[in-house]
Amino acid sequence: MKKNIAIIMGGYSSEVAISLKSGNVVYKHLNREKYNPFRIHILKDEWYYINDDNEKYFVNKHDFSITYENEKILFDCVFNAIHGIPGENGAILAYFDLIGLKHTSAPFYQMALTFNKRDTLSALKKYNIPIAKSIYLNKGDIINTKNIVETIGLPCFVKPNNAGSSFGISKVHTETEILPALDTAYKEDSEILIESFLEGTEVSVGVIEYKGEIKVLPITEIVSENDFFDYEAKYEGKSQEITPARISEKEEEAVTKMAEKVYQILNMKGFSRSEYIFMNGKPHFLEMNTVPGLTEESILPQQAKEANITLTELFDNAISEALS
Question: What's the CATH fold of domain 3-105?
Fold first, then answer.
């Protein structure tokens, strides 16, 4: 009997449009012989199923069901394609846990932890994972730009603590640029992380659960045409994403081991894609994305393709792991 799969997409953050693209790619590639896929839009003002004729059917939030063609439909599993809030920060996953509905992501606590950049770095620091120097600010804190420069150095990055897709991030080259960069970041979040600049080769490493085991996918090298791997570089073709990465065997082995260790330390499940920068041959952890882009052009699907895993196989595996 086919399983009913709710593909949730949209969300409450600046990443809505990107999430809708990812969700529609999942919908396109799910195996129709095994699954009945339903596109569920989770938006601030409404939750609804949208069929192929673009007709809306609202979700009953008591049990996350829909009524379609006079039939009540319950779901066997949720495929989480929401970048940002409430999918990547764990909020909606806590709700699914409460109503007993399985999903393709890690447990809500792990999702909340990894969405918070500061808390992720704090957890990993205790395990001697190399990271950048950082300062953390809450909105309303007194800002001492001189102290920031003395502590972190220049250039540095000013970024929202809880946000994705590089929204609100600035690379700061002078002390006078710090305050405008903070204003930009505060538009996305009330918590800010200021990090030292790490100069070196940047790579992206996908780690997933595949057929019951942790699997590190082929590594991607990021070469941005812009000053850093910003929104334009990620989504508007302003970067080269080279898979497999042009790194030495020793560097590949080091970042592969570290990526698997980080996945285990954070007790992750499902998809993850983390960024690292090599300095003096040693990978330094930047951040983890637990709902990475899932379009045909996105990094993790590129890595899966290099590993001879099709999108249909990748998405089927995520559901199988969730149901098991």
Answer: Rossmann fold (3.40.50)
Please report which confidence band the pLDDT of residue 230 belongs to, taking 50, 70 and 90 as the band edges: very low
When pLDDT is cut at 50, 70 and 90, the band that residue 227 belongs to is: low
State how far the Cα of 49 lies from the Cα of 211, in Å rounded to an integer: 30
Predicted confidence (pLDDT) at residue 286 exceeds the cutoff of 70? yes
Average pLDDT, integer, range 192-213: 95
Q: Which residues contact 110 (CB under 8 A, 6 or more apart)?
A: 90, 266, 267, 268, 269, 290
CB atoms within 10 A of CB 213: 7
Architecture of domain 113-130+199-323: 2-Layer Sandwich (3.30)
How many Å apart are CA 108 and CA 125, to the nearest integer?
A: 22
Overall CATH class of domain 134-196: alpha beta
DSSP string over 216-230? EPPPEEEEESSSSS-
Helix (H) or strand (E) holding 236: none
DSSP 116: S
Which of the four pLDDT bands, split at 50, 70 and 90, describes residue 28?
very high
